[in-house]
Design goal:
Elements: E1 14-27, E2 30-43, E3 47-51, H1 58-65, E4 75-81, H2 90-93, H3 95-98, E5 106-109, H4 113-116, H5 123-134, H6 139-152, H7 158-161, H8 171-183, E6 189-193, H9 201-218, E7 221-226, H10 229-235, E8 238-243, E9 246-252, H11 253-258, H12 263-270, E10 320-321, E11 330-331, H13 360-365
Parallel strand pairs: 3-7, 3-8, 5-6, 6-7
Antiparallel strand pairs: 1-2, 1-4, 8-9, 9-11, 10-11
Helix pairs in contact: 5-6, 5-8
Length: about 375
């Protein structure tokens, strides 16, 4: 498991670039905006984490990186490109063009294996279908390729288990099957959307270790999506924190864990077991995430923020540069330079200063 959070060299080639991407969906109740002015880059050999609560826009963001919209009515602005491979805007390309790149350049591991796999087809047949879709490999060679992929992702006795149906696999083995299918075309970019959801802690660690090993051994760049910051902290080089459809903070993992610049990131850290002293209760984030309908231009976190002042109610959010010149870091908070100050307590109780907290890196490095 990665714990050093080595930063990818600045000269590493950019494999994927999203520039100011927004996705809107008109509904009878108003305009839904699951993705709002999101900009991301992924470099060769990098692991990029996207973290946020359920409904923050993570999955729609990931699907937009493949040129997939949530519905036929959805509209988009901004661009997604694969530099050196596809300079055309992925969002405008259409499925006919994108099929040449799905699976071979970029591939996605979906959230739920039980809904992603066909229950009446054997595991081996479903992997074979992915192989046939992405290569001209003759049928006589597909058996060996299936065995190779199943072995690579840690499915034991592949010659026998490829004849099983999905209901005969455990949740962890089903997730490994989806990873094998995603790897069938040898993609350069792999997107893992909540790959450990609904798995127990031991299996979660095994799947994360597998993804890290595959990323290292195959040289694949990885986008890892999770609602659990502790999962992201173990694996990723950089982290994008999403809230209300926006990236509210983007930073190298070690920097974000030690010196978060957005109040939401700060609150996430304080709500995690092990990130606060044992004799103090966890600090819950009051309120609920915003509905993504007819969102205001002002800060989405404002109703829940303990750092907000009067100026925040009129400030139009933008991603501000945070860190050294040329740094890929950014934060969507007008008071980000004051984040180390003691926040006011809405309950009238004093909030423990950050200096009293256990460094989260110490906790995660020990896992």
């Amino acid at each position: 498991m990665r714990t050093d959070h080595t930063v990818t060299a600045p000269q590493a080639a950019v494999l994927l670039e999203a520039n100011d991407v927004s996705v809107t969906i008109p509904t009878s109740g108003g305009i839904v905006t699951p993705v709002d002015h999101v900009s991301l880059t992924l470099r060769s050999g990098e692991v990029l984490g996207i973290v946020g609560e359920t409904g923050s826009g993570k999955t729609v963001t990931c699907r937009s990186l493949l040129g997939l919209m949530p519905s036929a009515q959805a509209r988009h602005t901004g661009s997604v490109t694969y530099p050196g491979v596809m300079d055309e805007n992925v969002l405008d390309a259409g499925r006919g063009v994108m099929r040449k790149h799905w699976g071979t350049y970029i591939s996605m591991i979906p959230q739920n294996p039980m809904t992603s796999l066909n229950p009446v087809h054997r595991i081996g047949d479903q992997i074979a279908e992915a192989i046939a879709a992405h290569s001209s490999m003759p049928k006589s060679q597909r058996f060996e390729r299936i065995v190779e992929l199943m072995t690579r992702v840690g499915i034991p006795n592949p010659q026998k288990r490829m004849r099983d149906y999905p209901h005969q696999f455990s949740g962890g083995m089903l997730q490994r099957t989806l990873i094998a299918i995603a790897l069938a075309g040898d993609p350069r970019v792999l997107i893992a959307d909540e790959p450990t959801t609904a798995l127990d802690v031991i299996i979660q660690d095994q799947i994360l270790s597998l993804l890290v090993d595959l990323q290292r051994d195959l040289g694949t760049s990885l986008v890892l999506v999770s609602h659990d910051l502790s999962v992201i902290a173990q694996v990723c080089d950089r982290v994008a924190v999403m809230y209300g459809g926006q990236v509210v903070e983007l930073a190298e993992t070690a920097t974000l864990l030690h010196t978060p610049r957005h109040p939401y990131t700060n609150a996430l850290l304080k709500s995690l077991p092990g990130a606060v002293p044992r004799d103090q209760p966890l600090t819950a984030i009051s309120g609920s995430p915003p509905r993504l309908i007819d969102l205001p231009d002002t800060c989405r976190f404002l109703p829940r923020c303990t750092f907000a002042d009067e100026g925040c109610s009129t400030w139009t959010t933008e991603l501000l540069v945070a860190g050294a010149a040329g740094s890929p870091a950014g934060v969507r908070c007008r008071r980000h330079q004051e984040i180390d100050l003691q926040p006011p307590s809405r309950s009238g109780q004093e909030t423990p200063p950050r200096s009293s907290l256990v460094e989260p890196m110490d906790f995660w490095a020990a896992r």
